[in-house]
Design goal:
By secondary structure, this protein is an alpha+beta fold. It has 3 helices and 3 strands, in the order αββαβα. β2, α2 and β3 form a beta-alpha-beta unit. It starts with a helix and ends with a helix.
Length: about 110
């Protein structure tokens, strides 16, 4: 990945995290963390991976960030000196959930032995 895109990804991650903390309201007791940003080579889209705690708030949080996406993009345009802010595509990180599923499967296999 070109260094310029890596730098943009890092900058977007920091700025989106700050905007979400400052300007977006989530259900009480919900924690949202921006894990990664991956901007396409043509700079048109950026995939934002978020971690959401607790798990049962994932749907609510995803609806909120998707609804606020244009507003977040406008705020990014004010803070980041680039010609065009990529469209934000939101994804939920399911790594922890998958790891727990694998652990349960391994435990059940060990119990059968």
């Amino acid at each position: 990945m070109p260094r310029r895109i890596e730098q943009l990804n890092e900058l977007l991650q920091r700025e989106i995290g700050a905007i979400i903390a400052r300007d977006v309201e989530f259900p009480k007791g919900t924690m949202v963390t921006i894990l990664s940003v991956r901007t396409a080579g043509d700079l048109k889209n950026a995939s934002i991976t978020v971690s959401i705690f607790p798990d049962n708030k994932r749907g609510d949080v995803l609806r909120i960030v998707r609804k606020k996406s244009r507003h977040i993009e406008m705020l990014l345009q004010e803070h980041i000196p680039v010609h065009h802010i990529p469209s934000l595509l939101w994804r939920i990180d399911v790594t922890e959930q998958k790891a727990q599923e694998v652990e349960k499967l391994l435990d059940s296999l060990q119990k059968k032995e």
